[in-house]
What does this fold into?
Amino acid sequence: MSNKLQIIPLDRIKDPERPLRSNLTPESVDELVFSIKEVGLIQPLVVVKVGESYEVIAGHRRLMACELAKFTEVPCIVTVSSGLEKEVLKMHENIAREDINPIDWATQLDYLKTQYKVSNAKLGEMLGFSEAWVSQHLDILKYPPEVLEQIKEGKLAFSSARELAQISDPIKRKVYITAAVKSGVTPAQAANWRREANTPPYQPVENADSSALSESGGEVNIPLPICPVCNTEIQYVDLITLQIHRDCAPKSE
It folds into this structure.
């Protein structure tokens, strides 16, 4: 793969065929437009030649900002790549950027996996991540809609969303997601909530064995719940849970 720096007219540069960001709008690059007007484009775009035009591989936000700033030409690094190599390069150029939504990462990973028949392990090797990292991000696409919505809006971090998405009861899941969005939640706290929500409630034993009653002096030993933090039994007087107004609880559909 060879690279060459060129000054290219802006009207010859096209948007990426498969944009990594799904939420790119003129409003989202306002600050970048101001910066480029003040100091110019410091970091060149990365493009590939497509016929007589060029397709941007890295720098989609910068391309939009330059268009809004009324630039006529921009510095570009022209690279020779195609297919899987081009898509992986696009991801490499954006790995360090925190403003890319995890759902967009997941969608791109799923595309590469499906289009090019690449395993999770191979994808991880090409991107410099573990196979587990790839698998966890692909799992995002299977999350419940209410979790995906909060990730997309940037209100729920992936590390916490991964825990809350595993709450099996949909009503409880919505309650915890509402609490997380309103008050914030750390990944460790989200993991505790997930364990708490998925712990089955105590079910009293019906028709207890009369011999067990007589041996215990007429008392039945009720198993105590386990604390998800320290993994020890909780006395019922010390038991706490997430408390909300009844009217605030999501209704089942």
Q: What stands out?
A: The radius of gyration is 26 Å.
